Amino acid sequence: MFIVYYYSHQEKKNILKPIEQKLNKWLSPVKEDLPPLYLVGGAVRDHLLNREIKDVDIACVKPEETANRIGQYHDRSIVLFNKKRNAVCYRVIDRNHKDDFLDIVQLRNNSIFEDLQERDFTFNSIAVQINWKGQIEKFIDPLNGVEDLQNRLIRISSLHAFQSDPLRILRAFRFSAELDFCLEKKTKQLIMDQFSIISYSSIERIMAEFFKIFTTEHSARHIRHMDEIGLLEIIFPEIKKMKGCGQNDHHHLDVWDHSMMVLENCEQITSNLNHYFPESATQIQNALSINNRLVLMKMAALLHDIGKPDTRKMSENSYDITFHNHDRAGQEIICRLSKRIKMSKQDQIFLESMVDNHMHILFLSRPDVKEKTVLKWIRKLRDNFIPLVILEMADCKSTLGPASSKASIDHHLTWSKNMINNYFHEIKQKIEKESLIKGKDLIALGMPPGPRLGQILRTIREAQDIGTIQNYNQGLALAKKIIQNHGRLHS
């Protein structure tokens, strides 16, 4: 049964007002006749949920011609691209405001009803017919998507929805994570029956959805659901070895369940930054929002011990289990994994660094470690130091075996909180200051270019960071002393 909702003048005035203003700007100047236009997809869904509307999709029978007609009345550019699988889109962009654009897409089978039935989920299968002024004429809801929105349900639009595009299986979990919706019973059963076809989707599309899941506050719950049906192993076959891999008395869970707990604790920390870091919560949030740090930190939490199965050894004398150099082994696995899933080079380097260095943070928190050693690592990592510390905090909170020391865990958590606060209120300013002494200063003192010059510069920089030298003259004096001592050693 097709459902069409008609609205009174006052209702039209109130509903979708922000979109109407946007559409009026684009459509009202157009003098030629346009085909019937329908607002479709996420814009309608997000409006009904009072969420921020990002993309505005207009479906019609002649998208290219319509885009050109609209565009000729504006200072615009028109870009053709495949916005979705097998769906051509013409984006009309305001040259003066690049964030202001319309996406004009092809109406499937030239019918709004058939178009909506071919979409993924019922709450994405709601359309709004608009007139030439961009005003709303009627809502079209053939699959009762509004009712599913009200009931917070994710329901597929047709029984062949997943076969038409297997990525929709992953999108179901993504929407569940983003909207905090439940999978409708039959939809969940179809996912359980068909999850293996996700392998037919390109890895780029899969990872785009996976990253979106990790941007949500409670992704661990949905990652668990994906894992329970076997979907996660299809995407990351490397995790199979982690399951059932027993650990020593410092842990109460196997490698995989421990890793899942680390992800949960990671999210618990990042969702409560004001509690853990009352002095630096805003700075931490800003740092994590840049360069995919938050997403990659969560991915590292899930995979930080991926090297343990290959390094697991049983001690002959004590029957203790060891995982020597599992961090380095994990980094090598992540290198191969990140290439397989076609990560950007920047993301790959970051993820490898998180896995490779996660144990080193424990070393830095030891009382006998010198300040210059800590500053050396922070200078190397800069803001990437923040997610690494949070990851290791989550790791410590998840280490709950009978041999684990509560005092040791509490010490590390306290050190981590203090170190991050100090980083933003003192250390960051120190390491970002310009070096007092540069290579040209050492060359002027007779030091030839080469590795030794670089070593001396690093030594002087360390002295600057810890406050041993505070001006150019002090730095120059230290440089002369180091060079003289170096000369005596080789005389």
Overview of this protein structure:
The chain has 491 residues and is an alpha+beta fold. It folds into 4 domains: 148 residues, Beta Polymerase, domain 2, CATH 3.30.460; 78 residues, Hydrophobic Seed Protein (Orthogonal Bundle); 190 residues, Hypothetical protein af1432 (Orthogonal Bundle); 51 residues, no CATH class. Helix content is 54%, strand content 11%. It contains 26 helices and 12 strands. Strands 1-8-7-2-3-6-5-4 form an 8-stranded mixed beta sheet. A two-stranded parallel ribbon has the order 9-10. A two-stranded antiparallel sheet has the order 11-12. α18 packs antiparallel against α19.
Strand order of the largest sheet: 1-8-7-2-3-6-5-4
The CATH class of the largest domain turns out to be: Mainly Alpha
| E-strand count | 12
Low-confidence runs (pLDDT<50, min 5 residues)? 5-13
Task: Please provide a brief summary of the model.
The protein is α+β, with helices and mostly antiparallel strands and 491 residues long. It is 54% helix and 11% strand. The protein starts with a strand and ends with a helix.
Topology:
Blueprint (H helix, E strand, L loop, with lengths): L3 E3 L2 H6 L2 H11 L9 E4 L1 H7 L8 E4 L2 H9 L4 E9 L2 E8 L2 E10 L5 H6 L9 E4 L5 E5 L4 H6 L2 E2 L6 H4 L2 H13 L2 E2 L1 H10 L8 H12 L4 H10 L2 H5 L19 H16 L2 H4 L4 H8 L4 H11 L4 H4 L1 E2 L6 E2 L3 H15 L4 H13 L2 H5 L6 H11 L3 H13 L8 H27 L6 H6 L6 H16 L5 H18 L2
Helix pairs in contact: 8-10, 8-11, 11-13, 13-16, 13-22, 16-19, 16-22, 18-19, 21-25, 22-23, 25-26
